[in-house]
DNA sequence: CTGTTTTCGGATATAATATGTCCTTAATTC
DNA sequence: GAATTAAGGACATATTATATCCGAAAACAG
């Protein structure tokens, strides 16, 4: 049960987009070069963010991506689900129903007890991600990354945005 | 990020094994037929449980599997990790290190902030599973499954255990 | 208007993993 | 000795993740 690498890429890209000056866009090319990622494939992750209305896009030179909402209005779960999908990690195939001792057409009132427990754990995972806002990540980064590196990173990336 | 179907199989098999009379074993064949699963493939899941010391085995006719511990001494996480592995769902490839504005050989004191958040969510998932004991599942099942179905299921399955 | 740059989506190819089957070996029971 | 079992290796197939390529439409600069 491993998350797609696109999840990691999307989170890092959102962290960069959160620090963009007002009105500026970053292209797939710039984000890919900054992180050393395949441009065409990263593009799929960014398209997922766009479909989830987490980022806005514009075409042409100096076009690209920017956040569609304030970093404090975006949480981790939204980003993760945008690229990973909303499906639960545990899928119940209802194998209890194969039990030959069950009456024909026997219908349980509740979903399978095993599934309920696995789904509860899944919810705990989602709750944790839901509670972390993109602005929290930005805050942590600005504490931990030396200010000059952080600043020059944006100069570097904006130079590539035309 | 989907768990293997073997996880579901292992959990249901453990629930059955938890209700076995003292000293009895259940074969792969019996467990496979009860749940309508491919015998050879289910066998791989049961081998994982055995390697994790969650079940004991014996060979020959009337051989098979039984729990190695009391149901209250086995939690869900042990079972899930036995077949799914202990690896975290999020793997950090440290793409921040590609940033061309970072000094050569720049070494962060802490692991990536993104990874720390994702790992925290992973821990929340594991904590939930760790807190649920196999005996809890058995308790729920004995409440929700009609007693006669539950009883005849064990008669059915033990008949196939020779 | 023309050429360049961009996102977007479809099509395709490759690699990795999950799923499933088959077979041999050794242990156990009868 | 014959039947039955778990263990595990080898193999085949299906599904998914990863990656690349291309064409269309939009935006912009000259």
Give your account of this protein's structure.
Chains A, B: GO terms for molecular function: DNA-binding transcription factor activity. Chains A, B: This is Rrf2 family transcriptional regulator. Chains A, B: It comes from Rhizobium sophorae. The structure is a homodimer of 162-residue chains. The first copy, chain A, is built from seven helices and two strands, in the order αααββαααα. Chain A is elongated, with a radius of gyration of 21 Å. A two-stranded antiparallel sheet of chain A has the order 1-2. Chain A has one domain: Arc Repressor Mutant, subunit A. In chain A, helix 1 (5-18) packs across helix 4 (76-84) and helix 2 packs across helix 3 (39-51). With 162 residues, chain A is mainly α. Chains A and B meet through helix 1, helix 5, helix 6 and helix 7 of A and helix 1, helix 5, helix 6 and helix 7 of B. The structure holds a DNA duplex (30 and 30 nucleotides).
Walk me through the topology.
2 copies of one chain form a homodimer.
Chain A: H1 5-18, H2 28-35, H3 39-51, E1 55-58, E2 64-67, H4 76-84, H5 113-131, H6 134-144, H7 147-159
Antiparallel strand pairs in A: 1-2
The structure holds a DNA duplex (30 and 30 nucleotides).
Average pLDDT number of chain A: 95
Distance between the termini of chain A: 40 Å
Number of strand elements of chain A: 2
- Which superfamily, in CATH terms, is the homologous superfamily of chain A? Winged helix-like DNA-binding domain superfamily/Winged helix DNA-binding domain
User: Could you say how many structural domains of chain A there are in total?
Assistant: 1
- The CATH class of chain A turns out to be Mainly Alpha
Main interface pair?
A-B, 58 and 58 residues
Helix tally of chain A equals 7
How would you spell out the order of helices and strands of chain A?
HHHEEHHHH
Shape of chain A: elongated
Strand content of chain A: under 5%
């Amino acid at each position: 049960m491993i998350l797609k690498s696109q999840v990691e890429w999307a989170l890092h890209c959102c962290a960069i987009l959160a620090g963009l000056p007002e009105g500026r866009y970053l292209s797939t090319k710039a984000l890919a070069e900054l992180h050393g990622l395949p441009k065409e494939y990263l593009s799929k992750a960014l398209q997922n963010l766009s479909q989830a209305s987490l980022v806005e896009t514009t075409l042409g030179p100096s076009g690209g991506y920017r956040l569609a909402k304030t970093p404090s209005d975006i949480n981790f779960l939204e980003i993760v689900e945008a690229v990973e999908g909303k499906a639960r990690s545990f899928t119940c195939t209802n194998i209890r129903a194969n039990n030959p001792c069950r009456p024909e057409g026997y219908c349980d009132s509740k979903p399978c007890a095993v599934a309920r427990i696995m789904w509860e754990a899944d919810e705990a995972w989602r709750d944790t991600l839901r509670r972390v806002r993109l602005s929290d990540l930005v805050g942590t980064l600005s504490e931990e990354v030396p200010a000059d590196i952080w600043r020059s990173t944006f100069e570097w990336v904006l130079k590539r945005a035309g």
